[in-house]
Amino acid sequence: KAGVTQTPRYLIKTRGQQVTLSCSPISGHRSVSWYQQTPGQGLQFLFEYFSETQRNKGNFPGRFSGRQFSNSRSEMNVSTLELGDSALYLCASRDLSGANYGYTFGSGTRLTVV
Amino acid sequence: EDKVVQSPLSLVVHEGDTVTLNCSYEVTNFRSLLWYKQEKKAPTFLFMLTSSGIEKKSGRLSSILDKKELFSILNITATQTGDSAVYLCAVENSRDDKIIFGKGTRLHILP
Questions:
Q1: Which of A21, A83, A84, B98 is 20 to 30 A from B69, alpha carbon to alpha carbon?
Q2: Which of B43, B48, B96 sits opposite A100 (nearest CB)?
Q3: What is the rounded CA–CA span in Å between residue A90 and residue A45?
Q4: Which residues of A touch B90 (CB under 8 A)?
Q5: Taking CA atoms, what residue in A is nearest to B41?
Q6: Could you write out the three-class secondary structure of B69-100?
Q7: Residue from the list A31, A42, A102 with its beta carbon closest to the beta carbon of B101
Q8: Which of B29, B37, B96, B101 to probe the A interface (max A CBs under 10 A)?
Q9: A62 Cβ contact list (under 8 Å, min separation 6)
Q10: Residue A98: pLDDT band with limits 50, 70, 90
Q11: A38 SS3 class
């Protein structure tokens, strides 16, 4: 079974630009969650999508948005990038219909804003 | 608001030592507590705990949950340099299925 795939692996953007990150979940997993990881704050929850609908949302500004497609692939978008958006963005999928609700994580996208 | 606090934030020990990592939590509707190991990028799943007092074991790693005192510990015996990583604790809320992580414990094993 293929794991969670995130693209791109690395990204360098300039302040004010926008960026789109992609995540393909494990086959059969319909829930996709996004986290931002920084050294000072740890993993912070951005949002979760299930069956193309946003189920949960963290405490991030509206510049952070996401969507999920019918094949469960998800994208997250950050507009008007700020230096503080530099982080590792992790995507995780899970099977909410199973007994094990734990996540499987992708390897992340390292975003650097300059 | 749900909260997970891990301690210590960082730890340096020598190979062969035993370490205990702590995780305390506050969650309105507890479903499970999860431990992950993060070496480079992708956190990898270690344990899921749902019941108090039942130890989960995998090789030199073990973990236990106390739902009355709202904490869990992760033990690693006979540590090896390959155990160097960030260990993440998370709790899952059964009301909305949200999973909240602590800031992690950075463990460094000296040869």
A1: B98
A2: B48
A3: 10
A4: 43
A5: A107
A6: CCEEEEEECCCCHHHCEEEEEEEEECCCCCEE
A7: A42
A8: B101
A9: none
A10: low
A11: strand
Residue A100's pLDDT band, with cuts at 50, 70 and 90, is low
Write out the two tokens for A4. Answer: 């969670």
Q: Do B48 and A90 touch (CB under 8 A)?
A: no
**DSSP class per residue in B31-62:** EEEEEEEESSSS-EEEEEE-STTPPEEETTEE
DSSP string, A41-86: TEEEEEEEEETTEEEEE-S--TTEEEEE-TTS-EEEEE-S--GGG-
Instruction: Mention every residue, 6+ apart, whose C-beta is less than 8 A from residue B14.
Output: B79, B109, B110
Question: pLDDT grade, residue A113 (50/70/90)?
Answer: very high
* Structure tokens given for B9: 């934030």
Distances (CA, A) of B38 to A82, A90, A107, B18, B41: 26, 12, 10, 19, 6
Per residue of chain B (111 residues), what is the pLDDT tens digit?
A: 889 999 999 999 999 999 999 999 999 899 999 999 999 888 999 999 998 888 999 999 999 999 999 999 999 999 999 999 999 999 999 888 889 999 999 999 999
Q: Give residue B73's identity as a one-letter amino acid code.
A: I
Would an 8 Å CB–CB cutoff place B22 in contact with chain A? no
State the CB neighbour count (10 A cutoff) for residue B111. Answer: 7
Which residue from A111, A88, A83, A109 is spatially nearest to A16, judged by alpha carbons? Answer: A83
Instruction: In whole angstroms, give the CA distance from residue B40 to residue B85.
Output: 8
Contacts of B96 in chain A (CB under 8 A): 55-56
